[in-house]
Amino acid sequence: MELILDRLTKQYKNKIAVDKVSLTLGQGVYGLLGANGAGKTTLMRMMCGLLDPTGGEVKFNGIDVSRAEYRDALGYMPQHFGYYPEFTATSFLHYMASLKGLTKQRSKEKTAELLETVSLSEVAKKKIKTFSGGMKQRLGIAQSLLNNPKILILDEPTAGLDPKERIKFRNLISRLGADRIVLLSTHIVSDIENIAKFVLVMKDGQIIQNGGVDEILTDIRGKVFECVVDDAQAAELSQKFPVVNIRAAGPSEEHAGKTLLRLIASDNNPPCENAETVPENLDDLYMYYFGERNE
Amino acid sequence: MKHDNRSIKKHLKTAFDPPAPMKKDAFLASLNYPRTTYFGFVAAQVRYIRKRIWCASFLLVGLVLAGLAYLGHGNFIWIVSAFLPLVALAGIMEVAKSLSYNMAELEMSCKYSLSDIVLARLGIIGAVNAVAFIVITAALLRGSGMGLIPLIVQLFTPYLLTTTLSLFSLNRFRMRGTLYVCAGVSCLASALSAGIHINETVLMGLFALLLLGTAREIIKLIRTEDGIWNLSLTA
């Protein structure tokens, strides 16, 4: 099972949204990380055959993205999607199943199974327009799984889910990644940290990092510091370095009235006198690539 | 002997617990379930055509039959002709509903893509309209004193004006606002059919032109459906 992106490019007049992206994705969960406008959605849409690339190609096991066989192996959940007003959760899934080529019997079975999986069985007969944002999101996830896809592409799937739903969703994605290719984009770094086997970091239309979580974190190893400083110094440091966290230092007398900063230095030199290096995580990496200084 | 075997089998069943299934989910996931045919897909779409389409066709036939019964022929043909652009509008709204309800992106990612869906909707709505049109044409032809061709031309020119201009707009401007343009076009066609009397030869020429125009725009809609949605996704 192999999904190959070969020099995939999308250009709109003067702007290059995706710039010669080449990747080979195998079984497992891939997290796509990037700031708004980095090109994540454009890349995902090209991988689903919704946008024609300006250059390059996408193939799954040798099948081109433009073919029905490719779409037959695809499950996609867009960032924003609508529904026809008369649809209930069940009729929406039946409709999507008919477009995915499922037989009536199979559609009934899968609909019941997936509504159970995403905890919507009790509201199966209710109109979607009465659903909360989280419920609609779960329904979107359910429709993407109807055809038991080999490629699952999820654009911001956890947006609008409460923490309990997010954890449930993460567990579901982890299970699904065992025998298919799952690519998910999200701004919630902890989602990727918890479930993604590989992380792809996208910036200005290019994949600038690609590897396991530990592997890509080596870039910032020794560059993440925590220090306790007074307010004036905190303001000065946040102008010079991307700050990941800022909070009151603590109740002890020594730290009273001071601020604890977690920041990323561009090199391994401590940003101030009492700074200590701390173990890095994906939030730090995100700020390293996409953070801004408070200039 | 046979009885002994049965007895041993029976006792074996009670003596041992069957082993728990291993990798059952993975096995089930690997199975290729039967898929529907293209005809099955089209047939399934009938359920998702909104009731208003069926209602519009039934209403049209009902109105014509009731009108013929109570009003006679006289000026009745132009009333039917003025009503037909609204039937066309209902059909176009149905074909383009993916755009109205933001479903296009999801539908494009499915095995039967948006162009297949549009083709299926056009086929179903076209078939329903065709049946209704045959019934009303046959009903109006009897006793109207008009020939078949002039009657068809007079009845369906406003309908074709609506379909041609609406599909022309949809093919070029994929925005929700375009549907308001379609509504405006149908009202205009309806008003024109009621208020303007055109020379029969000119009307026949216009009819032929609009028939070709509708056919051209339908082909364009099906051929470029996915490509044009590409443009709308970049917004």
Question: What does this protein structure show overall?
Answer:
The complex is a heterodimer of chains A (295) and B (235). By secondary structure, chain A is an alpha/beta fold. In chain A, 32% of the residues lie in helices and 27% in strands. Chain A contains ten helices and 14 strands. Chain A has helices at residues 40-47, 68-72, 89-99, 104-117, 133-144, 163-176, 189-195, 213-217, 231-240, 282-290; strands at residues 3-12, 15-25, 28-33, 55-60, 63-64, 74-77, 151-155, 181-185, 198-203, 206-211, 224-229, 243-248, 259-264, 276-277. In chain A, the strands form three sheets. Chain A has a six-stranded mixed β-sheet with strand order 6-7-8-3-9-10, sandwiched between helices. Chain A has a four-stranded antiparallel β-sheet with strand order 2-1-4-5, with helices on one face. In chain A, helix 3 (89-99) packs across helix 4. The longest helix of chain A is centred in the middle third of the chain and has 14 residues, at 104-117. The relative contact order of chain A is 0.14. The model of chain A has no long low-confidence stretch (mean pLDDT 88). With 235 residues, chain B is mainly α. Chain B has one domain (51-234). Helix content of chain B is 79%, strand content 0%. Chain B contains eleven helices and no strands. In chain B, helix 5 runs antiparallel to helix 8 (114-141). The model of chain B has no long low-confidence stretch (mean pLDDT 84). Classes of the chains: A alpha/beta (295), B mainly alpha (235). The A-B interface holds A 12, 45, 48-52, 68, 71-72, 74, 76, 78, 80-86, 95-96, 98-104, 106, 143, 147-148, 178-179 and B 26, 29, 33-36, 40-41, 44-45, 48, 50, 97, 101-103, 105-113, 117, 227, 229-230, 233-234.
